[in-house]
Amino acid sequence: MTTKKRSLASLIVGACALAPSLAMAHPGHDTHSWMAGALHSLTGTDHLIALVSFGLVLAAVATRFSHKLIIAAFGLLALLSGLISGQHFGAISLVEPMIIGSLVVASLCLWVIALPNRVTSLKKGWQSKMADIALVGAPTFLLFFHGYAHGVEASGSVTQFGFGMMVTAALLMASGATLFTFARTLWWAWGISALSSLALLA
């Protein structure tokens, strides 16, 4: 194992060790301040994983900075739409399964992206474009349900809360995108899978 891979493995193992203390913790709904919204995505491991994973995926699929910004904007729009919908329509049974599904999809997308033969087999043509759309579209759609869960739990006006949550979400996406530039590796898929499993079992 190379030094870079050992470093990535150590990072993932360390994150896994910390995950149980954070898993599924969602403080912040007792207030609707900007800070509560900003901290909310950081204190819920399922949301944290989904947003960082989204950043990893968009960095892998989009080569131009402008394209990355567009994809990130769609992701934030999905999250905000979910927040507003959750506040207005209330709890539905579909939300939790879709949140769980989003973590599975994130791992699968990263796995496909990191496969060595993907670059050569889908280098040109409409197949490559369709594959990239699917790899980005699925996580984007599922971010809606993370926002929906926030909206259901919140009460009253969530303008400041929502703004704070969007800022943190954007930073987490940017963090994921930056991590992917460090290494294009299957370790990301393994790490997201491990963290997702711990979060769901906690």
Structure overview:
With 202 residues, this protein is mainly α. The chain has one domain (34-200). The protein contains nine helices and no strands. Helix 5 (95-114) packs antiparallel against helix 9 (187-201). The longest helix is centred in the C-terminal third of the chain and has 28 residues, at 126-153. It starts with a helix and ends with a helix. Mean pLDDT is 73; it is low at 3-29 and 119-123. InterPro entries: HupE_UreJ. Residues 1-25 form the signal peptide.
Question: What's a concise summary of this model?
Answer:
With 202 residues, the chain is mainly alpha-helical.
Write the layout of secondary structure elements.
Elements: H1 3-22, H2 34-43, H3 45-61, H4 65-89, H5 95-114, H6 116-121, H7 126-153, H8 159-182, H9 187-201
Supply the helix-strand structural class. Answer: mainly alpha
Strand content: under 5%
Spatial extent as radius of gyration: 17 Å
The profile of the biggest β sheet is: none
How far apart, in Å, are the first and last alpha carbons? 31 Å
Helix content: over 70%
Tell me the total number of β-strands: 0
Shape: globular
Low-confidence stretches: 3-29, 119-123
Protein name: Urease accessory protein UreJ
InterPro entries: HupE_UreJ
Keywords: Membrane, Signal, Transmembrane, Transmembrane helix
Organism: Vibrio agarilyticus
Task: Give me some keywords for this one.
202 residues, mainly alpha, 0% strand, membrane, transmembrane
